[in-house]
Amino acid sequence: MGAVHAKSMDPLPMHGKDLGVNPDDLMEHPEPEPDAKQEILENKDVMKKAHIARQRLLRLGIFKEVEVLIDTSEGADALPNGLDVTFEVNEIKRLTGSYNTMVGNNEGSMVLGLKLPNMIGRAEKLTFQFSYGTKETSYGLSFFKPQPGYFERNLTLNMYKVTGQFPWSSLKETDRGVSAEFNFPVGPTSHMLKWEGVWRELGCLARSASFAVREESGHSLKSALSHTMSIDSRNSAIFPSSGALLRINQELAGFTGGDASFFKEDFELQLNRRLFWDSVLSASLWGGMLFPIEGKPSCIADRFYLGGPTSVRGFGMYSIGPQSEGDYLGGEAYWAGGLHLYTPLPFRPGRGGFGDLFRTHFFLNAGNLCNLNYGEGPRAHLQKLAECIRWSYGAGIVLRLGNIARLELNYCIPMGVQSGDRICDGVQFGAGIRFL
What we know:
- The chain has about 425 residues and is mainly beta.
- The chain has helices at about 15-20, 35-60, 210-215, 380-385; strands spanning about 1-10, 65-70, 85-90, 95-105, 105-115, 125-135, 135-145, 150-165, 170-185, 190-205, 220-230, 245-275, 280-290, 325, 325-330, 335-345, 360-370, 390-400, 405-415, 425-430.
- A hairpin with a 2-residue loop joins strand 9 and strand 10 (about 190-205).
- It starts with a strand and ends with a strand.
- Belongs to the SAM50/omp85 family.
C-alpha cells in the first residue's frame, strides 16, 4: 500500500462515492456569499481533477485499488483554504496468471497467460500468452512500454508463432514473426505505426486441395510497414446507439525486404443514429484494394475475403469471389455495405437487466469481391466491382458478450448468388468481434 500527497488551492467531484465525498455536502440551499461561492467552485474543480488522476492511475494496469482522500490542509505550512489530496494505492502482484476464453470471427479459443506488470517500475508489461482455438493455435511474447505521463503513447514489441486452418481454401498456414508497434493520438484520431517481419509456411489442409492452392504452398518471407488511423465517437463498440467509426489502414510490403511486394489499403466506416422506441439505425461500409508491386503476383494469404455471418450474411464463410475446384482464393479488391435496424426484444423482457444484452435486428447486406486488371482505368475497376453484386436480407437476434464480442442467430435470404458461391439459406449462426 502506498500513498501520494498533494496540496492544492485548485478545485473538486461529481462522484463523491469514489472520493469519499458526498455530493449533497457540496450543495448550499441559501445563496452563498461571493467568497464562499468561489471556494465551493475551487473544491469541485479539485475533486474533478482528483477523479481524472485516479482514472489515469487505474488505466496503467498496475494497481488493484486507487482511493482518493481529500481533507483540509493542516499544520504550520498549511495554506488558507488549502486542501490535502491523498492517493492510496494497492499494487497488483509482480507475477499474475490468467485463464479465459475468447471469441473471434466465427471462432472460439482458450487462452492461458502470464504477466509481469510494472516490470521496470514505469507501467511496463511483459506478457506470455498461449491460445488454443477451433481454427488457430498461437503463442507469443510481448513487451509493452508506455511513455511516462502519457499512457496513450506507447510501444509494443512482439514475438509469436501462429498456426491457422482455413477450410474454405483447403489451406493451412504457420507464421513465425516479430513486430514493433507504436501507438499515439493526434487530436481526436488514434494512430498506429507498425513493422512486421514474418516467415510464412503455407500448406494444403486436405489431399483434395485444388492445384491453385498447391501452387501457393511453400515458404515465404514478408516484411511490411503499416499505418492505421482511427476515429471512434461511438458510445459502445458492440451496441452503439450514436456516434461514428472511421478506420483506414495502409500496408506496404517489400520495401524493407522479403518475398512479398504489394501495397494494400482498406477502410471501415460505421454510422449510428437513435430512432424512436430505443431503436437504432446503423449503416456500415467496408472496402479495400491490393496492388501487386514489381510484377509479383499476390499471395493467397494477403488477399481479401468476403462472405459469412460476420460480413455478407446468408453466404458461407469467405465463400464469395474467385475460386478453383471449390477452394476460395480471395480477391484483390472488394466492397461491402450493410444497413441494420436494431430494436429491443418484443415486450421488453428483463428490461434493465439480462434482457438489455439482447437486440432484435433487421438487416440488408451487399458486397462484391474480385480481381482487377490494373492496366485499366478507375472507371473499369468500378464497373467490375459493380457487377455480380451479392446481397441478402433477413432478421435475427443479437447477444452482447461484454464489450468485446457478440453472437447472432439470423434467418437469412441470400440474393444475387453467382456460380461457385456457397449459400446459407435459412438459419445462420455467427460469433465475432467485427460485424458488417
